[in-house]
Amino acid sequence: MTKELNVAMIGYGFMGKAHSNAYKQVANFFPELEHRPKLKCLSARNAEKAGAFAETWGYESVETDWRKVIERDDIDLIDICSPNDSHLEIAIAAAKAGKWVACEKPLAMNVAEAEAMTAAVEEAGVPNMVWFNYRRVPAISLAHQVMEEGRIGRPYHYRATYLQDWTIAEDVPQGGAALWRLDADVAGSGVTGDLLAHSIDTAMWLNGPITRVVADTETFVKERIHQDSGEMQPVGIDDACMFLARFANGSMGTFESTRYARGRKNFNTFEMNGADGSVKFDLEDPQYLDFFEYTQKESGKKVADHLTGWRKVHVTNSEHPYMDKWWVPGCTVGYEHTFIHALADFLAGVEKGEPVQPDFRSALQTQRVCDAVLASAKSGAWVETGVSL
Predict the structure, then answer these.
(1) Residues 358 and 337 in one domain
(2) pTM for the model
(3) C-alpha separations of 310 from 58, 82, 254, 288, 316 in Å
(4) Which residues are 19's β-sheet partners?
(5) What is the mean pLDDT of residues 52-65?
(6) How much is the pLDDT for 356?
(7) Are 9 and 123 in the same domain?
(8) CA angle 372-130-346, nearest 5°?
(9) Which residues, other chains included, contact 185 with Cβ-Cβ below 8 Å and sequence gap of 6+?
C-alpha cells in the first residue's frame, strides 16, 4: 500500500534541482518504498523565478512566504534548500508544526543554532535528515562496508582534500542570490562549512569521531563588491582551510580545502591507511574504489608478495551498494543518484521506524568540528571538538 508524501521545498537553484530530481525518481527505482513523494509547493522570495522553476519540475503551487507553507495542512515534508542563515528559523518552525524536515548542509551557521535545531526536531519527534549526499556514492558506501568488515585493520591515517577554483578572480562579487556563499553574514563560513563539512561528515562516518583539531585559514581577496549594496565590503569567509585532526580511535588526519586550486572544479578525495590495508576515493572518478590488501581478512595471512598491490574496484556490480537498483554491471551512475539514494534511505528508515544517518544530531557533530576548526584558526592552538558519536 502506497502513501502520498506531500513535499514543500524552500529555495531552489543548484540543490533545488538535485532534490527535485530525487523526489521524482525515487519511487521508480526503489518501488518497495511505501511513500510516493509529490511536489506540492515551492517557496522562494522571487515569485517569477520560483514560478518558472515550479513549472519546469512540476510543483503544484508557489508561495513567496515560507511561513504560510508550514501552516498548510496538505504539506508533510519541509525541505530546506535556502541559504544557511535561514535554516534555523525554518527548521524550528517546521518541527513545531509536526512536519518532517530535510535540510541542506551545513546544518546551521554555528553550533548554537545546530543545537537548537536538533533539540526542536527531537522534541517534536519528527523524522529529519541532512543532505550529506556523498555518503551515498556507491564507492564511498563500499568504503564504509570495507571499514565495517575490518579489512584495513587498525586505522593509522586519514587524509582528505576538497578543491575548487571558482572564486579566484578578484572581480567576483559577494552576496546576492548566486554568490551568497561568499557572504559571511549569510553563509557563516567559507570552504569550512561549504566543502569541509562534506569531508568531515564522510571522515567521521568511516573513521569515527574527530576529537581535536588545529587549523589555519586564509582569505586571499580581502574585499569584494557586495551585489546587494553595490559597495566594496570586507570578505569574512575563508577562501582556504587546512587542519590536522586526531580521531577517537587514535588515528591522525589531514584535511585541506580551497576555492583557489586552479583547474580543480570539484576535486573531493580521501585515503585511509591501516595496519592491514588502505582505501582511496576520488570524486572525479567516482565509479571506482581503490583498495590495497596487505592482510587477508578470512585467513589473517599476508597477501602473497606477487599479488600485493592496489586493486581498482569498479563499483557497478549488483552486490555493490545501491547498484542492484540501477543498470547492468559496467554501467555507471552519477552525482544525481546520490540524492536519490539519500532520499530512499531516509524514507525506508521512516517506514521501518529506524532513524537513518545523517540526521540532525549527526550533522550537529559535524558542525562542532567546523566550529572548532574556525576557532583554532583564530587562536592557532589545538581545540577540542566535543564530538561524541
Answers:
(1) yes
(2) 0.96
(3) 46, 42, 22, 12, 18
(4) none
(5) 97
(6) 87
(7) yes
(8) 145
(9) 85, 236
